């Protein structure tokens, strides 16, 4: 899934009223990730599953909004939309008990001849194992899913006033992302059109 919750993002970067709905949605979505709220959660070690099978009350690993750096909305409250370099948040659906093997990360590509430059936050689009497994809403009440922010670096004339189709996939693990029967399994496709 992506945030803002739209598979088509179209706006003029000079007209804040055209992108304000996307910015407001991102800001609202990120509220549970605020650093002050996340301080109450556990600072779990990187790269290790946070198994809690034997605990009655499941603890939650911190996922601080500040980890999303330029896409956190903290330094730039427009999430890059005002400069024509929008941030998109990619998240996996919650799956109870999931422990992905390998090093899961999000990788995005633009469906066009020339590659589109993108930045990922956390680095390399990493979905750290410490956020797995998930134990369900009842047992894991304050759980927040790990996110990857993708900043689309629209810089050339070819990037603007053109509909860009972007596909993001979960890579580097045993999670499926190319099932012809379920085209959204492990991947999401959306369109972005930014005009000056």
Automatic annotation (TrEMBL):
It is found in: Cell membrane; Membrane. InterPro entries: Na/K_ATPase_sub_beta, Na/K_ATPase_sub_beta_sf. It is a single-pass type II membrane protein. PANTHER family: SODIUM/POTASSIUM-DEPENDENT ATPASE BETA SUBUNIT, SODIUM_POTASSIUM-TRANSPORTING ATPASE SUBUNIT BETA-3. It holds the Pfam family Na_K-ATPase. The lineage of its organism: Eukaryota, Metazoa, Chordata, Craniata, Vertebrata. This is the non-catalytic component of the active enzyme, which catalyzes the hydrolysis of ATP coupled with the exchange of Na(+) and K(+) ions across the plasma membrane. NCBIfam families: Na_K_ATPase_bet (TIGR01107). Keywords: Cell membrane, Disulfide bond, Glycoprotein, Ion transport, Membrane, Potassium, Potassium transport, Signal-anchor, Sodium, Sodium transport, Sodium/potassium transport, Transmembrane, Transmembrane helix, Transport. This is Sodium/potassium-transporting ATPase subunit beta. Belongs to the X(+)/potassium ATPases subunit beta family.
